[in-house]
Structure formats: C-alpha cells, structure tokens
Please model this.
Amino acid sequence: MNTTAQVLEKNKERILEKWMQNQLSDASLRDDLMTSDELQRQSKEMLDGLLRAVSKGNHDNIYDTEFEQVTDTLRDISITRARQGFSPRETGTYVLSLKQALIEVLVEQRQDDTSTLYMEIMQLNTLLDNLSIVTFETFIKGREEVILRQTDEISEISTPVIRVWDGILALPIIGTLDSARTQIVMENLLQEIVNTGSNIAILDISGVPAVDSLVAQHLIKTVSATRLMGAECIISGIRAEIAQTIVHLGIDLSNIKTKASLASALQLAFSMTNLEVRRNDKNKGLNIMR
Amino acid sequence: MEIVREQDVVPFRNRVREFSTRIGMSLVNQTKLITAASELVRNMLKYASGGKVILEIISHNAKTGVRLTFKDEGPGIADIALAMRDGFSTGRSLGLGLPGAKRLVNEFDLKSNPGEGTTVTVIHWKHGR
Ligand SMILES: Nc1ncnc2c1ncn2[C@@H]1O[C@H](COP(=O)(O)OP(=O)(O)O)[C@@H](O)[C@H]1O
Ligand SMILES: [Mg+2]
Model:
C-alpha cells in the first residue's frame, strides 16, 4: 500500500488544481491585489515544500527543520497579504482551502480503505490547523507593523512648528503628550527657535484631551528648555475643565504664562515684543457698512 | 481591562470616557475622573509594570456613578501616608498622582501590602458629589 506521502505526491497536479479552484472560487478573494499566475506560482511552491516535509514522515511538528521552507513561505505570504491590505478571511482561506483539496484527493484515492483514510485525515487536519495558526500570527504581526509605522508617522506630522509672526512661533499640540512625543515636540521647537531666531513660543494645548501630572511635567520641561534658549513660552488653549483639573491635581503653573485661547496668547506675545495691531483708518467705512 | 504597556493608556481613558458619557456625566466631571484614572494607570505601569482595571457603573442611594478598580501585583507601597503626600515621588516625577487623584474624585481608597501589590478604588458620581 502506498504511504500518505506517496498518494499525495502522485496526485500533486490534481491537488494543486483543486486548491487553485477553491481559492479562486472564494467570492471574497480580490483579484485586484494579485494576479492568478502569481497565486499559482506561490501555491505550487508551497505545496512542493509541504509534500517534501510529509514524505520525510513528519505529519505534525511544523517547528521541525523539514517544515522550515513551508512555514517561511507561509509567513512571507501572510505578511505580504497583511501589508497589501488583504482581509484576514482572504489570508486564512489560503491554507484552509489547501486542506480541503488534500482531503478531497485522499477521499478519492482511499475509497477502499476507510480506516487509513480516517487516520490520514486526522493527521492532515492537525498539520494544517497548525499552519493556519502560523498564518494568523504572522498576519497580525504584519498589521501591527503597519500600525507602529503609522504611529511614528503621526507623531512626526502632528507636531508642526508654525511661524505666526516675525519672532513668534506657535506649536499646536494635538493628542496625548507622552514621553516620546514630548521629545519630538521639544526638539522641533528648540531647533526652530534657533533657525528663526524667535524669542516667543506659544504652546497650544487645545487639542490635548487630558492634562495629568505627566503631561504637566512634560510641559514644564519644555518651557524650561525654551527659557534656556533665551526665549519665552506661553501655554494657550487651556479649556475650563482642564484648568479646574490642573488646580485639583495641585500642579503649579504660576511661573508659566498661560492663556485661554491662541488669540489671547498672540496678543500677549505682541505686547511682549512691543507690537501693536490696530484697525487701519481706511477700514472705517467698511465697518459702518457691516 | 489589562494594562501592560504605555499604548494601553489611551484606549483605557477612552473606555472611562465612554462609561461616564453613558451615565450623562458633565464634561468637567468626566475630565476629573479621566485625569485621576490616567494618574492611577500610569502608576500601575511605572511602579508595578502593569495590572488590571475593572470599570463599572454603579448605583447607590439614587445616585449613579463610575467605579474604577486598579489592581496590580507590584511591589506595593510601604508607607501609604508618605506616598499620599503632595510632592513625594520615588520616580523623579511630580509626586502629585495619588494625592491629586484623591482630590479629583468623590471616593478614593488605597490598599497595599508590600510584596503583594496595590489596589486603588475610586468612585465618581454623575453630578460630582
Ligand atoms: N501601583 C503602585 N505600586 C507601587 N508603588 C506605587 C504605586 N503607585 C504609587 N506608588 C508609589 O507612590 C509614590 C507616589 O505616587 P504619585 O503620587 O503618583 O507620584 P509619582 O507618580 O509622581 O511618583 C510613587 O513615587 C511610588 O513610590
Ligand atoms: Mg504618579
């Protein structure tokens, strides 16, 4: 009698064909993300590796060296699919539809020997279930990488330093000011103070959802660093509920210039630099018309 | 809710916001509770390398509120009175987390056994009293 590996090896073409059919017939698979030639090539490589490992008598331990190529290919596929935006379903279907194809072929070939068939199906089940776990682990890792990269990008782009006036910088802070963000904010700000020779920086925290003692400590540090550079710092955008919370927490901001809005902070900055904003007389007519 | 790393802080605070919005808590009271929660969860991460928080909506004597229980299995606090003092910190920070949180919420309870861990329970009522 032929071993499982021999039966499978002999019917490799049919398995591949069935597997491809299963994959392509799954309504959820998007052909915009990958051509079917590519899929065919990938699947063949994967099946070859799998049969090679099974022919060495290994049916269960996918962490053995025989399976290295299979799990590597699988990880490759899963991580690529995660990055390309395939759904978990599409990614999982890949391995699960191979299981289907393998079992179908075995059922055809083992009609006269159901007890062997039963054992073989049990083994293949375990094996392919383990491989689907690898698929999902890798898929999720791929997604996490995407998220981490986006987090980095967000903290980069969300800390712009704006030159609002000659000598006056504004820095709107949006989101949570954790230690990593503070570092970026502080570096950007100090660099920009040097680049522009500004002597006033406005830190606007309207977009910060909560000011706890850690955020406050970060703000205080940023203000001290700004002062060391010879510039003055104003914190604006302190909403009423934030002001109350800061007082209850017991944070002392009395050494720091604070304003409720960016507009009033700008006004303060103007008066500190002896600038004055006045309505031009020529606009009087316009005012009456309004 | 499990808290094991810094990235868990923001989702946790959003959950607290969700709970307090659900019972119709005003913005000021929400902010107080969220800030206190933020302090306690950061302590848990910093001094006990994480722990668990239980969020509950509770009713008592016709009052509705949110109760948060912070449970960790860290080193515990040897001198609670000292830890509750404004400005006391073993972590080179402001030392306002515990005393500040106590001032922000309606009810505050801290239990700790050195070597076993720390449990802090806070309650904030819908109307802030
Ligand atoms: N969950 C905890 N486990 C162990 N020690 C803690 C915990 N929370 C607070 N502490 C101790 O209490 C001190 C005071 O905490 P806190 O008032 O939040 O100030 P800070 O966090 O700035 O140090 C901490 O420095 C730490 O020694
Ligand atoms: Mg603290």
Chain B has a mean pLDDT of 94.
